[in-house]
């Protein structure tokens, strides 16, 4: 049945890793403003969650921000027992610092360290989702992030965000540019829009496959 909520587990810096939730995790990567929070919210609402609101983490330039997608709330047998609590069924890790952070050298280092540690060591990590804006040509940052993920052996899908901002011809052209620029297989990038919902079902399918759910 439908998950009910997305809840922040915590933000983690430097060499700390979040506590394990005991469920698979999906990591989201991309430059700021690419549409990451919008995509997360859309994924959760499509899954039946109604109260999810992923926003900018206040004050945190970056780190590993872990969210838990919670299953349905369970209720006890009598009126006194109340809610037994919802169990996490999937983790979403937002890695805002990885590859794209515009930070001072020092904080950039500690932020990237956190994300790198997460990507390289996290047992629960089942899939990385790299977001690129459908209207932008991939640049050296995008290529470096992709190369780093391949090196670390992270299973990866590239999605092109905000496809609703282009017409059909423009989308075709843009997907070719991104595919060539990043050296992607024919079926990537996956076209998505947090506004129209395009690609969200497909992305859920890919997530569930990767998580063997
Ligand atoms: P983040 O910084 O990567 O988390 O990006 P946000 O999700 O906050 O999105 C940045 C801006 O792009 C906001 O103004 C969003 O409303 C807009 N945006 C995000 N996704 C889409 C989309 O699929 N279509 C359109 N038209 N706008 C989008």
Automatic annotation (TrEMBL):
Record key words, sorted: Cell cycle, Cell division, GTP-binding, Magnesium, Metal-binding, Nucleotide-binding, Septation
Signal sequence segment: none
Annotated GO MF terms: GTP binding; metal ion binding
Residue stretches making up the EngB-type G domain: 22-213
Top-level taxonomic group: Eukaryota
Species this chain originates from: Cyclostephanos tholiformis
GO BP annotations, alphabetical order: cell division
Lineage of producing organism: Eukaryota, Sar, Stramenopiles, Ochrophyta, Bacillariophyta
Name of the molecule in the record: EngB-type G domain-containing protein
Protein family membership: Belongs to the TRAFAC class TrmE-Era-EngA-EngB-Septin-like GTPase superfamily. EngB GTPase family.
């Amino acid at each position: 049945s439908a998950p009910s909520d997305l809840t922040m587990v915590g933000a983690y810096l430097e060499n700390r890793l979040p506590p394990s939730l005991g469920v698979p995790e999906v990591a989201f990567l991309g430059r700021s403003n690419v549409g990451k929070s919008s995509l997360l919210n859309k994924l959760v609402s499509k899954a039946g969650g109604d109260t999810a609101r992923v926003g900018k983490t206040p004050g945190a330039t970056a780190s590993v921000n872990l969210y838990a997608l919670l299953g349905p709330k369970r209720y006890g047998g009598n009126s006194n027992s109340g809610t037994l609590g919802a169990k996490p069924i999937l983790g979403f890790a937002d890695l805002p610092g990885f590859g794209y952070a515009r930070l001072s050298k020092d904080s950039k280092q500690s932020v990237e360290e956190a994300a790198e540690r997460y990507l390289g060591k996290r047992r629960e990590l089942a899939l990385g989702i790299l977001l690129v804006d459908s209207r932008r040509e991939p640049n050296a940052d995008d290529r470096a992030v992709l190369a780093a993920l391949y090196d670390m052996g992270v299973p990866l899908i590239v999605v092109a965000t905000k496809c609703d901002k282009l017409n059909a011809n423009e989308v075709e052209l843009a997907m070719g540019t991104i595919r060539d620029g990043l050296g992607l297989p024919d079926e990537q990038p996956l076209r998505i829009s947090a506004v129209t919902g395009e690609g969200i079902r497909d992305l859920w399918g890919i997530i569930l496959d990767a998580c063997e759910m």
